[in-house]
Specification:
It is a single chain. The chain is mostly beta strands. It is globular. Strands 1, 2, 4, 5, 8 and 9 form a 6-stranded mixed beta sheet that branches. A 3-stranded antiparallel beta sheet has the order 3-7-6. It has 1 helix and 9 strands; from the N terminus they run E-E-E-E-E-E-E-H-E-E.
Length: 117
């Protein structure tokens, strides 16, 4: 299972729909069974700061599939972002209550130039 820090920032384009699909496999490249798992990821300007964007399986911004983790946010949500960079981590809660951070890293907001209504 790959757990760690992402080398490159996640880039979010302000005012655009955001979609990112990642694979989650064990060390032998077998897709991880995500049945019964809950996932949460918060974007913040820094650790301990207010949540700028909340991704979760409970708010449908994270979808878990066998071996996949998909993040989605609509254009209206990304248009409301004002902080241009920050940090995040993605935590998994197992059915038995254990919590594990799958990965962490930084994000970069690319500011909107063309704004359509």
């Amino acid at each position: 299972m790959s757990i760690g820090i992402l080398a490159e920032p996640i880039q979010i384009k302000q005012g655009d729909d955001f979609h990112l699909e990642m694979t989650w496999e064990d060390d032998s490249a077998t897709p991880i069974d995500t049945s019964g798992l809950v996932a949460d990821m918060h974007l913040k300007s820094r650790p301990g700061a207010a949540i700028l964007l909340d991704f979760s399986t409970t708010n449908d911004r994270i979808t878990l599939g066998t071996g996949t983790i998909t993040l989605d946010a609509d254009a209206e949500t990304t248009a409301a972002l004002r902080v241009t960079s920050g940090v995040f981590d993605l935590q998994i809660t197992y059915p038995d209550g254990r919590i594990a951070t799958l990965f962490s890293g930084t994000f970069k907001l690319i500011l909107d130039v063309t704004v359509t209504q």
